[in-house]
Design goal:
With 120 residues, this protein is mainly α. It is rod-shaped, with a radius of gyration of 31 Å. The longest helix has 31 residues, at 17-47. Helices cover 46% and strands 8% of the residues. It folds into two domains: 16-48; 50-117, Membrane-bound Lytic Murein Transglycosylase D, Chain A. The model has no long low-confidence stretch (mean pLDDT 82). A two-stranded antiparallel sheet has the order 1-2. This is LysM peptidoglycan-binding domain-containing protein. InterPro entries: LysM, LysM_dom_sf. It comes from Arthrobacter wenxiniae. It holds the Pfam family LysM.
């Protein structure tokens, strides 16, 4: 066999510095960026959640007029209003709860703290 027809010796593939950076560095950078953005989304989302809406209410002004209530799973404004003052018209109590807690949409989240008017 002549030297020109002999198969070339198999050599191990070696990555250059740039190749290692592309192969390992860029995916690591992408994963790190995704983790940072996810963490920020969770932190900012929890700060803006509806469960924190009632914390904006000035509780000093409501002393003697309203009591705090924690919303449970399945609660609605109607059921909370009916339990808080059964002697009054439920629609009026719902309107008071919405006004006291600055609930624009009336959508409640489990764990949210609301202030409900005390019985008169």
């Amino acid at each position: 066999m002549s030297a020109s027809t002999r198969p070339a010796a198999a050599r191990a593939l070696r990555l250059t510095r740039r190749g290692r950076m592309v192969l390992f560095g860029l995916p690591a950078l992408a994963v790190t960026a995704a983790l940072v953005f996810s963490l920020l989304a969770v932190l900012l989302g929890s700060l803006a959640s509806p469960a924190n809406a009632a914390t904006k209410v000035n509780t000093a002004n409501l002393a003697g007029y309203a009591a705090p209530v924690t919303v449970l799973q399945g609660d609605s404004l109607w059921t909370i209003a009916a339990h808080s003052d059964p002697a009054r018209d439920v629609r009026d109590v719902v309107a008071d709860i919405v006004a006291m807690n600055d609930l624009g949409t009336g959508v409640l989240q489990a764990g949210q703290r609301l202030y409900v008017p005390l019985r008169k």
